[in-house]
Amino acid sequence: MLAARDRLIVALDVSGAAQACQIVQSIGEAASTYKVGKQLFTAEGPQMVRDLISSGRKVFLDLKFHDIPNTVAGAVQSASALGVSMLTVHALGGSKMLKAAAEAASQSTAKPMVLAVTVLTSLSDADLQELGIASSVATQVLRLGALARNAGCGGLVASALEAAQLRRELGGGFAIVTPGVRPSGAAAEDQARVVTPRDAIAAGTTHLVVGRPILEAADPAKAAEAIMQEIEVAVSTRG
To answer: Is this prediction's pTM over 0.90?
Structure first.
């Protein structure tokens, strides 16, 4: 059973190391895992990841690798060498790419969990139609989720709105990481499909990625603690 502290991933969606370090320090022991995405990684490079890991934090490297299998395998090897705990690939890269990523991770010393991104939480059914995908978001998530699981990925990135269906169709034994999580009463902003921590856990989500509600709070540590309390209540209720 994962502790609430291990279920919460704080998204360091900021522009530089100084701001990121300030946030981590202000949160203190209220969180243990931090997401480093494209913005921060592009600005600061792998040293930011190394610094977080050397400070005792865990890193979720969210660069969403999507390329030919050999290139993605190499990227996963490099990420593994940094010591990250989780990393993302795009499920739309196909089964060969997904298998290459999973194999590269399993053969590394760090053995990070490979998470396949199904459908971005900013996309709606209308957005998929614009892209030439006739399926609904829910159908597309399930299709890509099954593909990733069969390829050996350890988990999926999906909205909690699809998590319940993923659990019903694919069972347990894998992680579901949910972005777009907002505490009760918070604004959805640019996310099309958002849920509360309680709803996410109830749907079968294992990890919650939270950014702005913590980063923009007057007291980030207090905001993180409040979310963890909500997670703990949801876990105990779900049993």
So the answer is: yes
